[in-house]
Structure formats: C-alpha cells, structure tokens
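Hello,

Our lab assistant flagged a job as stuck in the queue for most of the afternoon. It eventually completed. Since we weren't sure the result was trustworthy after the delay, we are filing this so someone can double-check. Below is the sequence as submitted and the structure that was eventually returned. Let us know if re-running is recommended.
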Amino acid sequence: MTDPSWSGDGGSRGVFIVLVGPDGVGKTSVATELISRVGGHYFHFRPPLRREWTTPTPGETVRGSPPTPSGTPFAALRLTKAFIVFWLGYLRSVRPDLKAGGLVVADRWAYGYLVHPEKLGAVKAPKVIRLMLRAMPQPDAVFALVADAATIHMRKQELSLEDAAAEVDAWASLPLPQLTRLDANEPVTRVVDDLLRHLGRVV
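-- returned structure --
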C-alpha cells in the first residue's frame, strides 16, 4: 500500500482506525496530517454527541464531568449513557462513511474508560467496560501515541508536568491487545509515515 487512498467512492468497505493516548500527545495533529495525505474524515468522539468532521481543524481539550463515586445508583446510568452515545455516534457518523468506502479516524473512543474507569463510576470496572466494548463495532486498528511527559508538557503547557506524567503512566498500562504503539516524540510527519506502514499490514 504505497499510495493509500480512501476517497469514499462507494466501493468496498472503508477503514476505521482509532488514535488513543494522553491528552496533549498529538492525536489531532496526527489525524489531521493523515487525512491530508490520504483523504477521509476525523471524528472527535465525545459526549454530548456531535458530528464534528474536521479536515483539518485545530484540536480542543475537552474535560469530562466530575466522576461519579463507584457504587452509587448513577453508575449504571452513566454506563448506559456512554454506551448509547458511542453507538449513536458510530451509526450516525462512522458507519455511513465506512459503507461509502472512506477512511474514518476517531479519537476518544471507549478505550479511555479502560484507562480511567472512574469517569463512569461503574461497579466492577473495567470488566463492565470490556463487556461494553465487545458489544460495540470494533475499529480495524488502534494506534496508541506514546510520548514522554516533558514533550507533552512542552506542546501543551497548560498541562502541568505532573499531570502529563500521570496520564502517560495511565495510558502506558492500557489493557488492550492488538495495539500498535507509535513514538509521538517524533515529528508528526514521521509518526504518520510509521502509522501508514503499520496500517498497510492491517487493511
């Protein structure tokens, strides 16, 4: 796949990939560079549900609502809401482009709840979240962007070095098999070069 292109021409099913990693690691920059080369759409997957195709658009930092304490009656409601949000987002925004043969790049997919299950407050998380993931359509590939805390802090100085380090540690232990890690300390163009090499082996 030396000259990949997903133009959405109505041919075979498209490609769905997800970028994960700490806040400030460069997911938006990588996605924007990727779709500028090969076409496709970039979807910010977050509640409240919005269809936000950006080709390209500067990234945004979106903070979630305060976590609900585990064991409360709201835990199941938060899990149900998250499940519905992701499913509706997939059906409304991802699936149509895949059926048209396009490339869809998403971030903030449900894997973030495996790293920070307290955001749902769900009892027995992340087991419950794993069950939710199994019931959802899965991407063709998941790429984890990996950078050191100092690099993230330099790129996004509103994140303290301590917060950046904590996020790096959390995402480094993401309990997910079949995950391709990319060195986000490198320039964006090199990260995308590496991503395309790996993606060529998957699709």
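-- support follow-up --
The delay was a queue issue, not a problem with the job. The result is valid. The chain has a mean pLDDT of 80. The chain is about 40% helix and 10% strand.
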